[in-house]
Automatic annotation (TrEMBL):
Pfam families: FMN_red. The keyword ATP-binding does not apply. GO terms for molecular function: oxidoreductase activity. Residues 4-152 form the NADPH-dependent FMN reductase-like domain. SUPFAM superfamilies: Flavoproteins. This is NAD(P)H-dependent oxidoreductase. It is an enzyme of class 1 (oxidoreductase). InterPro entries: Flavoprotein-like_sf (IPR029039), FMN_Rdtase-like_dom (IPR005025), NAD(P)H-dep_reductase (IPR050712). Keywords: Oxidoreductase. It comes from Streptomyces carpinensis. Its EC number is 1.-.-.-.
């Protein structure tokens, strides 16, 4: 069957540029043949990580819900803003909570990172810092990333990218990522079958 990809718009704002980029990325993934689960960070309400709260109550509902959605996917995409050239606290907090669950769901999954920002850089510095916790957790972070600069002017009414070159570049990045995930997923299935013999 098709590869399942969780696409997470990693900002809380209803009008978030990164949520819009997540929606477009999801649409491009579907066009490329993936099965997509589109999620918004607002779906995963959780308190700040606190070891005492964890010891007393375990994981909060929001973290368990994100864990579950990650688990049902073979790969994931994060569309995240850049805050002060780094990862927004809300996203880092969610990664920290979910990383406490075993089996830890970031491990061995493929991930594509994208960002949108009103700035001229497009949030790319934040994505480089997002690689650090994900790679630490064993995620195979796709080497290529996509960052949309001047994103407040970047979308058409239909949610496509206004700059045709940018739209083409995003579609190519998505297709390349999906190709890798599909090849690797087939390989994993084959390997499992060999082990069964
Ligand atoms: C920002 N913003 C920002 N933008 C950027 O390109 N580089 C940066 O370092 C920062 N830093 C930053 C810090 C904080 C605390 C805020 C609130 C904002 C601007 C940011 O890109 C802009 O607000 C985006 O619109 C946020 O993403 P969403 O919510 O539109 O997805």
């Amino acid at each position: 069957g098709p590869v399942r990809v969780l696409v997470l718009g990693a900002a809380l704002r209803a009008e978030s540029l990164n949520v819009r980029l997540a929606s477009l990325t999801a649409r491009l993934l579907v066009e490329a043949g993936a099965e997509v689960d589109l999620a918004h960070m607002r779906d995963f309400d959780m308190p700040l990580y606190d070891g005492d709260a964890e010891a007393a109550h375990g994981l909060p509902q929001g973290a368990l819900a994100l864990f579950d959605r990650l688990n049902r996917a073979e790969a994931f995409v994060i569309s995240s803003p850049e805050y002060n050239a780094s990862v927004p606290g809300v996203l880092k907090n969610a990664i920290d909570w979910v990383s406490r669950i075993r089996p830890q769901p970031f491990k061995t999954k493929h991930a594509l990172l994208v960002s949108a920002s009103p700035s001229l850089i497009g949030g790319n510095r934040g994505l480089w810092t997002l690689r650090i916790p994900l790679e630490h957790l064993g995620t195979r972070v796709y080497p290529d990333m996509f960052s949309l600069p001047e994103a407040h002017h970047g979308f058409t009414k239909d949610g496509e990218l206004a700059h045709p070159g940018a739209q083409e570049r995003l579609a190519e990045t998505v297709a390349g990522f999906l190709h890798l995930v599909e090849a690797d997923t087939r390989y994993i299935c084959l390997r499992r079958r060999w082990y069964e013999f």
